[in-house]
């Protein structure tokens, strides 16, 4: 009986230590994330993808920043369409892909949930903003608008069919070079897009 109690106490102690270790690791990761994703981003990149520079210019910006919740986790990525080269484009042209229900954000890590194209995304997700802007022809601009409307919203899944996937989908349709088969935090995705497209027709 006494040996059984000692063995049980030993197991409880091990579980307690394992729990404390997991909690410590989560705490350390949270602290790292809170600092790393608040470091100011590098300057935005603009590339001209028009084959004929005499064509009218349209502007498609691929953006990421801290999410609109108080802590900013895990960030949010979205696309902004504008017919003018505005320093602060109207939020009405910005669209992101999110779960239909706020509480499904956690659920979407484990299974698919209904999604939706969220309008005015620029309005809520500008903290520590980073972006790549593609200057395109009117034909390419209209093509991406059609591609946006064809994006499937029935199966949001974090890491495979989420806001980052939506941005990369539109970026590819625009003509940017995009990474394949990788999962990113939103801000990391924009950094990679910058690196992969910095040698295209550079503007600033």
What does the largest sheet look like? 6 strands, mixed
**Unreliable residue runs:** none
Radius of gyration, CA atoms, in whole angstroms: 21 Å
Average the pLDDT over all residues and give the rounded result: 86
Fold and architecture overview:
The protein has 204 residues and is an alpha+beta fold. The protein folds into two domains: 1-36; 45-197, no CATH class. It is built from six helices and six strands, in the order H-E-E-E-E-H-E-H-E-H-H-H. It has helices at residues 2-36, 104-107, 121-124, 138-150, 163-174, 186-197, and strands at residues 45-48, 58-65, 76-82, 94-99, 115-119, 130-136. Helix 4 (138-150) runs antiparallel to helix 5. The longest helix is centred in the N-terminal third of the chain and has 35 residues, at 2-36. The relative contact order is 0.19. The model has no long low-confidence stretch (mean pLDDT 86).
Q: Can you give keywords for this protein?
A:
six-stranded mixed beta sheet, 204 residues, 2 domains, 39% helix, elongated, alpha+beta
Short characterization:
With 204 residues, the chain is of the alpha+beta class. 39% of the residues lie in helices and 18% in strands.
Question: What is the element layout, followed by pairings?
Answer:
Elements: H1 2-36, E1 45-48, E2 58-65, E3 76-82, E4 94-99, H2 104-107, E5 115-119, H3 121-124, E6 130-136, H4 138-150, H5 163-174, H6 186-197
Parallel strand pairs: 1-6
Antiparallel strand pairs: 2-3, 2-6, 3-4, 4-5
Helix pairs in contact: 4-5
């Amino acid at each position: 009986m006494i040996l059984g109690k000692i063995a049980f106490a030993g197991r409880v102690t091990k579980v307690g230590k394992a729990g404390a270790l997991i909690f410590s690791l989560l705490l350390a990761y949270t602290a790292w994330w809170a600092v790393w994703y608040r470091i100011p981003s590098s300057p935005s990149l603009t590339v001209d993808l028009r084959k004929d520079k005499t064509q009218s210019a349209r502007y498609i910006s691929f953006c990421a920043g801290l999410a609109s919740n108080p802590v900013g986790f895990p960030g949010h990525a979205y696309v902004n369409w504008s017919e003018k080269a505005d320093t602060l484009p109207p939020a009405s042209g910005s669209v992101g892909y999110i779960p239909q229900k706020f509480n499904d954000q956690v659920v979407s890590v484990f299974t698919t949930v209904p999604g939706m194209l969220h309008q005015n995304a620029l309005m809520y997700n500008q903290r520590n903003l980073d972006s790549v802007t593609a200057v395109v022809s009117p034909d390419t601009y209209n093509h991406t608008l059609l591609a946006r409307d064809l994006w499937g919203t029935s199966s949001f899944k974090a890491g495979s069919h989420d806001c980052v996937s939506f941005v990369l989908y539109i970026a590819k349709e625009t003509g940017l070079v995009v990474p394949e088969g990788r999962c990113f935090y939103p801000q990391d995705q924009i950094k990679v897009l910058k690196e992969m497209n910095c040698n295209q027709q550079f503007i600033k």
